[in-house]
Amino acid sequence: MGLRDQYQLQGFVSIKGLLSELECDQIIEHALAMHARRSIPGCFSSDPQSDDPLQQYPRMMHPHRVDDLSLQTLKHPKIVEVLGKLLGQEAVGLQTMIYWKPPHARGQALHQDDFYLQTQPGACIAAWIALEKIDAENGGLTVCPGSQVEPILEMTSTDTSLSFTDSAVQPNPIYDHQLVEMEKGETLFFHGRLIHGSKPNVSSDRFRKTFICHYIPKLSTNYNKGYDPQVELK
Ligand SMILES: O=C(O)CCC(=O)C(=O)O
Fold it and tell me: Distance between terminal CA atoms of the chain?
């Protein structure tokens, strides 16, 4: 089955080795330096004494707006090539995030990205880059294959001892929950209506570092303008 057929059927495709190990190491080293300088606005929360590992290593939001390597990663030619194949049309970038997910960090409850991005018609698409090996222990991503056919679903409150977000969708039980184990440099592309999330990192010493990009079709007539400005990918 071709990539696009697989994407349309399951709502996701994963491509091993899309980024090289060297590229992943460069992104990590660079992001660690930004973390040490606290140079991404809004990424640290106020309580440095907290024992919540996510207070020490909060996710970075929109680093591409202030950092060139993050912008180049959002525009990475290999990612843009796959986006073209999956969407069959041009895309623009809207969001980047870096998740450190340190040992003992909580996960993110099940959700659809278009609950936030509100893309119409069609859907947004994520490129979720594993910067290191990812598995169940360090809190890999779980997806519900086929669930991208659902509309944007209601979110209800969820257990915040397991998730750093406080609401979740309750998937129809017809859907499986599939953990996606990933190698360093592997990139998971997934549809904006695909139900996905992650469990806590239960490792005592492994982080789960990911660089996450979100795109929408260039011809989208509606999306959440809070994500502007759009980034041209050429
Ligand atoms: O990386 C995670 O644990 C969750 C990320 C996610 O769900 C997203 O980027 O939409």
Answer: 29
- Pocket mutation for ligand 1, best pick of 98, 115, 128, 137 (most atoms within 8 Å of C-beta): 128
Q: Where are the domains of the chain?
A: 3-39+52-218
List phi, psi (to 5°) of 84. -60, -40
For a ligand 1 pocket test, name from 203, 210, 216, 227 the mutation site with the most ligand atoms within 8 angstroms of its C-beta.
Answer: 210
Give the Å distance between the CA of 92 and the centre of ligand 1: 20
Residue 77 Ramachandran class (φ > 0 left, ψ -120 to 50 alpha, else beta) = alpha
Q: What spacing in Å lies between the alpha carbon of 155 and ligand 1's midpoint?
A: 16
- Per-block mean pLDDT, blocks of 10 residues, the chain (234 long): 96 98 98 88 67 89 96 98 97 97 97 98 97 98 98 97 96 98 98 98 98 98 96 95
- Domain with residues 3-39+52-218, CATH architecture: Sandwich (2.60)
In this structure, the residue with its CA closest to atom 10 of ligand 1 is: 113
The answer, as to whether pTM is greater than 0.85, is: yes
